[in-house]
Here is the input.
Amino acid sequence: MDFVVEKNACSMYTCDVIYGNQGNNIPITAYLPIQHIGLDIWEVGIMYTLISQDNNVKSGEFRTVHGTIQTPVFMNVGTAAAIKGAVSTADLKEIGTQVQLSNTYHLHVRPGDEVIKKLGGLHKFMVWDRPILTDSGGFQVFSLAKLRKIREEGVYFNSHVDGRKIFMGPEESMRIQSNLASTIAMAFDECPPYPSDRSYMQESVDRTTRWLLRCKKELDRLNSLPDTINRHQMLFGINQGGTYKDIRIEHAKVISDMNLDGYAIGGLAVGESHEQMYYILEETVPYLPVDKPVYLMGVGTPANILEAVDRGVDFFDCVYPTRNGRHGHAYTGYGRMNLLNAKYELDDRPIEEGCMCPTCRTYSRAYIRHLLKAREMLGMRLVVLHNLYYYNHLMEEIRDAIRGKRYKQFKKKMLDNLNQYNDD
Here is the structure.
């Protein structure tokens, strides 16, 4: 896909505007004409194009100022602007990463969002020229249950690093994310604990709606300022409601009317069963716009992803491939392996035969097991690289299956295969 980028407006890392040639037949949903002396160019407007759909299952292209995202997509989690496991941004490109996710709260605490803005924004800071989504920090703030107080204006809490008092509300979260200059900003929401009683859940969801309106207003203001690094920062709203179907549905209807760039489903995978999660997705996703990305936050296992895609989700993130990888757990098309197990001591095969990741092309299970047992950093790095490649490649296969109208058969085969390994 060809784009014309105005060099005075863009750099490799902090692109103000990306343009499509007026006559190149790019299947973009809409164009917004702009004025620019001496150039016949169009600013890309509405960004999401549905490529293929079969009942709830969908695959699309999401165009952003930092590149086009093919969906369904798995976002690789780099909470503090780095993937844990000594994985560089050059590694991420090699293993097919489309989107990197970083966390507003952690970067605000250390090194500070103002520091990152002075250094040119998060893309330049971490040397990454593809899309970045920043979580609003809400989940981290609300997980500090003993250290925070919720008010209508926002949340007062103590830093987990040095104990200093911090206030974060919708406007503060948007300002931090604007300083970071991520591609996609997440709205600041309350993530209620599971389980929560109905009255508290309704009160919490109503507050999240009010906060979303404040987020939208503040981000519109920030995107209009001349010193904002990414003046085309997008905003995703977050659906909440726990396992209360009617609260979820009503909230989905309300936020859908706000015409945001995308929509997330939060507050799942926090203690409810998989069956409850799938049920809530089945009931809620149909009330979110089909022509916008739908993001299931913090999920999950390969099986979770396959089931959620079947229910209309096309954005995912999870720490499983990196966190479990650092502990020697490798994901494969046949299930999860524990490479610390003694049965791999003399196994000279790659983690997964046929896998083309940097790890499997070169190293054996036996060698990686030795590194992990010796607590060598290389062992963790190699498993994390494999896991992220596996997740990224799984999403490629999912996209191909959807666009080839064979997702139902693909999902069944994958779920059957995933049960073959049962390493503890």
